[in-house]
Design goal:
The structure is a homotetramer.
Chain A (H helix, E strand, L loop, with lengths): L1 H33 L2 H8 L13 H25 L5 H18 L2 H11 L4 H28 L12 H5 L1 H11 L8 H16 L5
Helix pairs in contact in A: 1-2, 1-3, 1-5, 3-4, 3-6, 4-5, 4-6, 4-8
Chain B binds a DNA duplex through α1.
Amino acid sequence: MTKDINKRRRRKDARPSEIIAAAFGEFEDKGFGGTTLGSIAARAGISRTTIYLYFDTKEAIFEAAMRGSVEQTIDAAAMVVQQAHGDFRTVFSHVVDMIYARLVTGDASVLLRVLVAEGHEMQSLVALYRHEILSKGESTIRALIERGIAAGELAEEARSYDVRLLVSPAIFVAIWMRVFAQVEPLEVDAFKASHIKLVCDALIQSKA
Amino acid sequence: MTKDINKRRRRKDARPSEIIAAAFGEFEDKGFGGTTLGSIAARAGISRTTIYLYFDTKEAIFEAAMRGSVEQTIDAAAMVVQQAHGDFRTVFSHVVDMIYARLVTGDASVLLRVLVAEGHEMQSLVALYRHEILSKGESTIRALIERGIAAGELAEEARSYDVRLLVSPAIFVAIWMRVFAQVEPLEVDAFKASHIKLVCDALIQSKA
Amino acid sequence: MTKDINKRRRRKDARPSEIIAAAFGEFEDKGFGGTTLGSIAARAGISRTTIYLYFDTKEAIFEAAMRGSVEQTIDAAAMVVQQAHGDFRTVFSHVVDMIYARLVTGDASVLLRVLVAEGHEMQSLVALYRHEILSKGESTIRALIERGIAAGELAEEARSYDVRLLVSPAIFVAIWMRVFAQVEPLEVDAFKASHIKLVCDALIQSKA
Amino acid sequence: MTKDINKRRRRKDARPSEIIAAAFGEFEDKGFGGTTLGSIAARAGISRTTIYLYFDTKEAIFEAAMRGSVEQTIDAAAMVVQQAHGDFRTVFSHVVDMIYARLVTGDASVLLRVLVAEGHEMQSLVALYRHEILSKGESTIRALIERGIAAGELAEEARSYDVRLLVSPAIFVAIWMRVFAQVEPLEVDAFKASHIKLVCDALIQSKA
DNA sequence: TATGAATGAGTGTTCATTCAT
DNA sequence: TATGAATGAACACTCATTCAT
């Protein structure tokens, strides 16, 4: 009997995240507008109306799903920052690795899709993303560059670049994989190496 | 009387493009799925059913709108290719200028939005875009690099970069403007200059 | 110039019947509800709105078409009555011939279709048909039987049959041809002969 | 609680047939094309969208309704065949009774209406009806005639009649009742007796 | 006379959401 | 907790009809 209660409680606690997981997959495949509660329910193996026990509206599910994704991204970013030891090329490579991992194959690809498609009506999500993730990423890279300059590895001039530019190709890859992958594949690892090389060649110019 | 006829004819001739213009705006705001014929009609100042005098289905409107956009992009690309005279930095700047103009403020931003959000179900549009535009842009830039190498301006090594990488930051700007512009602006011209500088610094660097 | 006027007048006079003819074909194919003004116009080779110069509503076209058909049937019936000379078998054969001709391949097949499908809302048409055609046909056949009895060809008992019964198989054929012809054909002439034989065998039998 | 569940279940189980019944009436009155889901829903006392819980499309409702009708007809026909004992006149009377019952006042009248009016686009229904009902009826009557000949009741010549002819007046009655009943009634029983008499007088000719 | 332009009412169908159990 | 039943609002699309020329 205790077991039953536990099982039920476990069930109860798990439900919301099961629903979010199912919803996440649907949003990834079809976007917000194209996703129906029926398809989420089917994917979660529950009834359509059960969803309403945990979420008030379709928007609420969406926000929960996106918030979860953002949080994972925040965690990943924090982890990278902590490990930031070594010369510019090495650390920058790690940062770029992480970004590709999340944007191209991870949760953030859904965020990208959704923000591009429906970001207009989701300014709070946009602001959250901006402040929790992008700004931290920006300052991390900026600090990285400063360190490189201080260490004599990078030219003073490196400071003049918009740091968003240095990681921006990752967005291109994420979009290419989403949109054009079926028509023409893109070798992500090669592209990523190309990306890192381009940035380092430009910034570490003083090594010459 | 001639005037009347003219007015009417002018109206008739203008209607399709009026509808396309209205539809274009709606697609930009809400994507294909989120756009209703009612909203297109309202924006065009006509009745919902009037649209059916000129287009058979919602898809037909969409295709007409996208086709127009793709054609404009093709024309713009062709123009750039013709004007491709001068050293690498100059010509590459022109190319990047054109891409930003179309992707960030021009028609192509709708394409980006729609392809990212709903490209899955629009493989024909994806293929059209891929073959008519992207591949031409790619070979143009590749030729540009070869010319730079031949002229001794660029190192042989320049060949090793994925050419898509060299223009990829433009996508980032397009997305930033769409998604984050209201939360935090981005100075497009400065970013673009930064972009051009990064690429040229990396590619032309060896000449030093 | 006189010619032009004539031509135009001829045109003007012909239009309504052209429209009716076109409408007739459409009603035959698709019934009243299934016929659109567009299809009538297309079949008549004119514009949809031109129809409104001659008819106020779709119903008006329909009534005109049905009325025309009824009138033709009346004429055909009158002709048969006039030619009613000879013994019962001969005259009855002529009558049945006429009925089959009109019901199975002629105008009346449309009437049948339409009355069955939409007769409810067309009681005036139904009444017209009833009084102008059916009742005359009935009395014609009744007279024919009386003549046969008077001539000793038929038994007195022949009077006891409902005269509608004697021609009723024609309706069956009309319906079969419309509904089942494609699935399984029916030899109209053989069936008609069978029909005539059945009636005559039953009525004239007593003479033996 | 059990009651409640039962009530609910009874409701759920009853709904489809309630809908079919409502639809049946509408199809009878207005045909397939003329019937709207709104009118079916109104007649069934439910919302238009509730219908979609039980049927996928309007066609599905129609098919279910027709299938039910066809099945009832098949059952009725089978019953008649089983009871086929006695002389020709008796058995034939039973067969005709059944046909009139179904065609004139029963379900099959809808089938008649719909097949006449819209059979063109419903070839599968036509084929079903042809193969499941008409062909069986045909062979039943043919067997009946053979038995009558074998028993010396009917002349060999009876074989020469198209068997469809022998029951065809039933169609006439069905149509008369649908179309002309309000303008001029028809005594179905008297007509039916007349019908039976005509056929028997013609076939049992050898009794003379 | 003839027509192209325009539209309001209506069709089948989908879906997020509510309610009773 | 969980769900099946039910529905109102909305959508793409059709069509008879009106209007201006």
